[in-house]
Every structure is written in structure tokens, then in C-alpha cells.
Amino acid sequence: MARRSGPTPHPRTGADPDLPPLPALPPRQPTPDGHDAPYAPPHPPPHRPRRRNLDPGVGKVAAPNPEHGLDAGVNGQVRPTSATSRRPKERTPVPHVPSPPRPVAVFDLDGTLVRGDTFTHFTRALLRRSPWRAVAATLCVPILAPLYALHPTRRRAFALLLRLATIGLPPHRFAALATEFAAERASDGNRIPHTVDRARAHLAAGDRVVIATSCAEPLAAAICRELGLAPVDVIASRLTASRTGMRPLPACRGVRKVERIRAAGITGPITHAYTDSSVDLPLLTTAAHRYLIDPSPAHLTRIHTHLGPTYVVLRSPGPSEPGAPPAPPTPPAP
Hints:
CATH superfamily of the domain at 104-314: HAD superfamily/HAD-like
Order of helices and strands: EEHEHHHHHEHEEEHEHEHE
Structural class: alpha/beta
Shape: elongated
Helix content: 25-40%
Largest sheet: 6 strands, parallel
CATH architecture of the domain at 104-314: 3-Layer(aba) Sandwich
Number of helices: 10
Distance between the termini: 133 Å
Radius of gyration: 46 Å
CATH topology of the domain at 104-314: Rossmann fold
């Protein structure tokens, strides 16, 4: 018997050791009767040939026909080659019609919407809150009284009193005290009803209402909220906090008031202006309709000298003062 040459097969399996082992068979799935199902090797998916386009004319572009002046399209469909057919339709531009600007009504605060100097009364209330502040202010009266009596030095005297009243007072506490004081200041006894009604009428008519005042900004905003004037633009004097108390910046009055209004983005014409003082002559000059609220004889004379009979005087008891200059041809908002 001839001996087999080559590697010796495995004694039990008979497999050739040089060949890779066969893959393991998957486990058999039991049948419903409990017996093992016969092994079925997995079959590969059937071969599906790719679809071919059997129509030779589909997707081909025919050559143009120079005799007819036509351009052949896809599948022999012709289309005209004129320049007018290829142009997109021109849209007629819609003219832009600018909307008319909103009328602007500017109101002063002190003496126009409420009586008296609001910020001065607030400073006095701050001084009376603390005994040592009140004593210090009393000791400074002989020095500050002459300064306050003169117009060029009045602002410095008031700045010293303000620092004495607010030294050691945080800004958030200052704003809270201003809100409390505004609730008392804007009571029925201090407000000027017919001017407040005019401001509300301007708001109801859709006008832009601006409160421009030399009062401090947080106090002026709080008073406007108490008067029910919203939404309005409040342009007031600004304060800066320091270790020695609140320091006032240049007041919002006179020419600076008009500059602050323009700087706030209100560039439209001012249609109505309400004030009680001749200090607002620059504001009255730019307004189309001018109204004086309970002016003093000195202020009335100065305004009449500069503007002539182009204003209306409004007194608290009635709509206008007897014997006042004639009203402008266009009445204000109802």
C-alpha cells in the first residue's frame, strides 16, 4: 500500500492542517413540534440587472435648424430663438410713498404738568430724612444763600446741597426714594389737570409726546408714571454717582433742551410746545403751536417781546386767559 505524501490530516476530523478552518454553522431553529429544523444555508440575493434606457431618442438634443431660425430642444421639441422670448418679464417698480411724520408735542414738567420745582422739593426731603444732614444744611445756609440768590452761581449752590443730601446713598436707594416721592408729588393737589389732559389727548391721537425737563431723570420718569402718561419720551437732567454723593451734569434747559431732543432721535418738526417759563424760548421758537401754562408777568412779557402774539396762555381755572393773544389758526389736539 502506497504511503500518502504531504501533511498528515487530523486524526479525528480528517481536516488538512494547512487549510483554514470551516466557518461555524448557525444554530438550528426549533420547529413548533419541538424538533430541530434541518439546516438551510443562506442564499445570496438574486441578481437584478440595471435598467437601461432602450429609447434612443430620450435625452438627446437635436441639431438646430438654421432654415427656420428655431432652436431644437430636448427630444426634438423646437423653441423660438428670438431675444424677446428669453428676457424675463420686467416688473413695474412700485413707487415708495413715505409716511408723514408723527406730530411731536413737547411738555415741560415743573410748572406745566405739576406745580413747583420738583427736584428742589425732593432734595429738601432727602435732607430732612437724616438729622445730621439737616443740621449740616442749616450750618451751610449762610454760605449757600448768597450763591443761590445769584443766577450764575445758583447751580453750584444747588450742587453742594445735592451732594450733602445724597452722600453715602447708593443709586438704587436714590431711585427707590424718588419713586416714593413721586407718588406724593403727583397727587391731585399738585398736578395741573388741564395740561395733563392735553398730554393724554396727544397720546390718544397718536402723537409723540416728549417730556423735556431740567428735573432729575429718575424722578421725572417716576412722576410721568404716576400721572398715567405712557408711553412718553422723558428727556431730563442726568446725575452721576460718586463717593461724595450725586453730582448733576449740565441741566436740560434752554438751548440744551432742544439739543437733547434732537440727540434723542426726534428730528421731526415740533408741532406743539407747552411750558411756563421764558427759559424755554428756544423750544417755543422751533414749535409751530406755542402754549404758556400759568406764566408769570415777567415771563409773559419776555416771551411776548421775542415771539409776538403767536402763543396761547392757558390758565388753570379755564381753557385760556381772558384778553390773551389770539390762538394760532390750527388748534391743538382735542
